[in-house]
Amino acid sequence: MRRLFLIIMLLVVGIAPNAAAQDSHYWDNQYGTKGELLGGLVVGSPSDLSATFYNPGWIALHGGASVLLTTKAAEAYSIKLKDGLGRGTEPISTTVTTSPGYLAGRFSSSSDEGWQWAYSYLKKVQFEFDATGIRVDDSSAPPPEGNIWFSGEAFRKAKTNEYWYGLTLSRKIRENIGLGISPYVVQRSMSSRTQAAAQGLSSESHFGQAYGVDEFDFWHVRLLAKIGLAIDQGNLTYGITLTTPGLGILGSGTVYQTASVSGIDQDGDGNVDDPFLAANHQKELSSSWDSPLSIAVGAAWKPAATGVYVTLEWFNSVSSRTALDPDDYLSQSDGSVQSYNLVYGAQSLVNFGLAFDHEFHRTFAIYGAFRSDFSSLPSDADDSLQLSSWDLWHISSGASFTFMSMEFTAGLQFSFGNGESDRFLNFSIDEDGDVIGDFGKHDISYRRLKALIGFNLGFGQEAELEE
Hints:
Layout: H1 2-13, H2 34-37, H3 51-54, H4 57-61, E1 66-82, E2 92-98, E3 102-106, E4 116-136, E5 148-174, E6 177-202, E7 207-233, E8 236-243, E9 247-262, E10 276-286, E11 294-301, E12 306-315, E13 318-322, E14 329-330, E15 337-338, E16 343-346, E17 349-361, E18 364-373, E19 392-403, E20 406-422, E21 441-458, H5 461-466
Antiparallel strand pairs: 1-2, 1-3, 1-21, 3-4, 4-5, 5-6, 6-7, 7-8, 7-9, 8-11, 9-10, 11-12, 12-17, 13-16, 14-15, 17-18, 18-19, 19-20, 20-21
């Protein structure tokens, strides 16, 4: 009994380092009509107004008649934690939602002279996680001599959103070379709550229980820019884009933590010790969030009806730091020092992908793409804000057609990945009838299916000619 609840107490008091939310995949979401069907592998080719994000240099080279671009998509994804709370437990988080949106427009459809202007909005990060694990011993009768009846539950909820608002300036520096920049204001919000409760009854009618919560939420605003160079040589096009690190502007957050344990003989002297209680709530804390420098290169070759597209992007690392830095506090029961852990970081990585399209007619084409999406979560870091240690692979396909100066696209994308994560609770029982204290690792599987539809609304010079 003593060993059981010492473990639970440590579990509850130390629950903070495992409050998780995701931002460890940079290529998870893609944008545009053709741009999304090509897996976002369009840094080196003109596609649509998603160039404001992928490579703003293309805005000056290919004006087009489109002044508004939008995509709508629905997605369903599941995250399965195999033995996530010990043997036989399999918490699953299943989410059905709309996919992150994108909206862009031009202030001019001409690409002949001077600076070209465009605007864009996109949801860069969207992640929700909600999983629960429960273990209740079958027998409701008093446990046999020397044994313990046990029940426990835990859940983890996390949500992350990040919005980008941008204005693009692009200009020809030669007839076939375009240079552009898209400054962005980025607003990010994160929230997470991890909660656990456990109780046990010994054969000697000793009862103990433990309860713990760790919660945080914050928002943060930063500035960054994408600078792109685009080169059009007819059948062969290519480009390069640099994304600056984020520059923090302002932000605020809140933390809450509580842990309580009662009915436990902590020192093994045969007497139940005083209850333990620690609770703390801190508000209006300054927040921070850094994003890395990245460099993307891409090319496309389209000698006839079929085109091939390739993009590679390197992301720099982000050193370990805190998103919120609350003060340590003293427990109410014994005055021991308690602390928060709200650390994040990112390792350097390279993503790559290959895509193709084929035009059967100038009004109908098909697309396909395959791309990597590796996790930036450092394998050896004390990272408490990120959950997604798994690497992802994305496969997409679709088609586009034009009707009355409007271009429509439709497609499907399947994403999958497997990984390993630290187990934040272990409700397994060992041979002596005690809860196992070694939390260890558990496997994670991720699956997502996305359906999308998009359209360009054509106005301006080219649209008038087509009419």
